[in-house]
Amino acid sequence: MKRLVIFILLTMITLYIMAQKKIEQTAGRMQLGVFAPEFAHLNDDILFGEVWSRNDLLSLRDRSMVTITALISQGITDSSLKYHLQTAKNNGITRTEVAEIITHIAFYAGWPKAWAAFNLAKEVWNEDVTGDDAKAAFQREMIFPIGEPNTAYAAYFKGNSYLARISTSQIPFANVTFEPGCRNNWHIHHATTGGGQMLVGVGGRGWYQEEGKPAQQIMPGTVIHIPANVKHWHGAAKDSWFAHLAFEVPGENASNEWLEPVCEDEYKKLQ
How high is the mean pLDDT of the chain? Predict the structure, then answer.
């Protein structure tokens, strides 16, 4: 209880400080002060000095979310977006949150715009990832977090996997990461109507296979639609880390049935 009270007080103090902060901008005068002094004045003194500083109406964090949404929606993915992504990070937006924001924007503004924005966001947030091991190196390739060891489903996986819940509202989805050689058992997403799953590759190289069909390679950007009541498995290639987003498709009487492991000999044949 005491820790909770301290946390709430620190949060209130942080929000108060951010609300009092006045943005000081000099980029306009530095870059256009001689060529376009009035534009420089409007940029530095009005846009940033007044509009961005009205933190009693919207917090800096809120303004960052609005700004990057507007820029991405217009397809502006140049240095101005990178500047505002860095500002968003400074204003408290986390790696996981920006991934969710851009993912949400993609459905309204367009998938290619989101991909372009993700490339810049990776540059801004990648400095948070340290370490020289293979897992850390793979994390630096992705905007989505690797997450925590997937202990809840470990019994149904061969090798180590990791789970990061990205969204639990609207369309729930998670980022699932597999170490090299890791894959899940054969399984079925049952449903009487609707249901199933959609996978989107986001890093490394992996495999997806339906019963009775050849295995299909999954690369970043590959989209896999898995109908309900179809037996299948998915996981990493034996020589590559792999991650995919897993979207749960709503359905009636939905349930998962976990089955036998993938045959080791058949898996080793995959190139």
Answer: 86
